[in-house]
What does this fold into?
Amino acid sequence: MSIAEKTPATPPAQTPATPQAAARPTVPRKAPSGRTLLSFVLPPLVVLVIAVALWQALISLFGVPKFLVPAPLDVLAEIGPAIGTLVEPTLVTMGEAYGGFLLAAVVGFAVAFVMARWNVAERGLYPYMVLLQTIPIIAVAPILVVWLGPGPTTNTVVAAMIAVFPVTANTLTGLKSTDRNLVQLFAMAGASKRYEMSVLRIPYALPYVLTGLRIAAGSSVIGAIVGEFVAGIGGGQGGLGYVITSTAQQLLMPRLFLAVIAASCVSLLLFGLVRLVEVLALRRWHESAMSSDD
Amino acid sequence: MTTAVQADLVRFAGVTKTYSNGFTALAPIDLTIGPGKVVSIVGPSGCGKTTLLRMAGGLSSPTTGELSIGSTQNSYVFQDPTLMAWRNVLANTELVSRIRKVPRAETRRRAVEALRLVGLENVQKSLPRELSGGMRMRVSLARALASEPDLMLMDEPFAALDEFTRDRMADELIRLWRERRFGVLFITHSIREAVKIAHEVVVMASGPGRIVEIVESPSPPGTDPDAARDTDALDETVKYIGARLAAA
Ligand SMILES: Nc1ncnc2c1ncn2[C@@H]1O[C@H](COP(=O)(O)OP(=O)(O)O)[C@@H](O)[C@H]1O
Ligand SMILES: [Mg+2]
It folds into this structure.
């Protein structure tokens, strides 16, 4: 359960003076004014500008050859000529990673559900979940290539294999750490196991599930690219992993950098989507999704 | 619900409890809770108070002895409010009736009535985190009341509250009791609270868990006008129980 992030319990809320104050907060919620938005965006932006400027300066200063480290301007200049060759691979990797992510989400949740619902299932399955996590996937990828052939299917499966464990581990933690007293309350009132699962345990576990999905978002992109490294191009169009290996062999450094940036964007987009769902689903009741002035 | 002749809500006769690890939490216990009686329990931590309460609620069975449970509807109130953070106050209050498949309209009526009793009719749509600690505890009380219990099992229900709120909650419990006359088994660390609230105070000791004495309260909840409270008699009883606890 090493991957499971701790999801803290909701802390006591501030004490409103009257019931009315609690029902209708007298202080209106602060809209994200230009000023606050700027205070979020500006610091990282400044760091980025400084870093890029430093990068450019060092390369100009020491005359580092382009085929070793491209300067930011070289990378920028490469966008025009390379864009046509990068769009397709980005879409391929995206499909593999997101497909693997969805597969991992569904399978990971289902396995955790079964494990939480039936103790026998947990005892039977848990060792294999741990085993799955400890197997270096990169070592298994060639086996999958033999079985499934090189190409997107294999890469999707590799992505799912890497992403499934955090989903299962976190979901299971959530489903099993439900407030003991609430569980007791349900039992005393005569709730069925099914009712307890759907009304109590699953909603309680939701923040944990989403934490698992957030980790899985990053893992699935790694999985897809690892798959592409090993499985290569297959019959059709290669993904970003293929572009990265081939441009590295040819020392096409600016293009290689662009491929890496594209891969990061694929990852970032998925991460952002999960985070958006998290905030929308939890913002009213869970600490992890509240703005800091709540 | 209350008829003239009624069986005792709970009767312990020579009940002991030894856990599966061999630890004896309770030596023979004899204790009866009559209908509508408020009984509080004080004793050092680990003396088996919670064990006793769980047995009274049918959540755990005695190792030896005889336990008869006459109550038809228990409600358990925990030290923490124990609410579903993602459901609003009304939904939390309706929980037990919903599980029991009480018809919708009746479920709603009971919950709204219970919330009115605890003074929370105005925050039905609020989420628990939008309430103060005292208000959340009142939601917990309302949830218990909404299931229309004849026995309330309360395990240090106000222990997490500040002293001021805690005193008010105790008064509120007495007021609710006057309206509904349910039986109460009430665990507390505060001797004064125990005496103030109950007909009888069960004084317990540990090693093994046992009842040292059952003390009558000089200010049982049914009798008094407010004037009868905080008298010398109450102080004396508190002092007496304190001495009994220290000696045990
Ligand atoms: N499930 C259990 N298994 C073994 N020992 C237990 C269990 N529950 C409670 N005990 C032990 O029984 C004793 C009484 O516990 P409890 O009834 O919770 O005490 P209290 O509520 O008075 O603090 C304690 O020593 C506790 O460690
Ligand atoms: Mg206890």
Chain B touches chain A at residues 57, 59, 74, 76, 78, 80, 82, 84-86, 95-96, 99-100, 119-120, 122-123, 125-133, 135, 147 (CB under 8 Å). Residues 83-148 of chain B form one domain. Strands of chain B lie at 10-18, 24-33, 38-42, 64-69, 74-77, 151-155, 183-187, 200-205, 210-216.
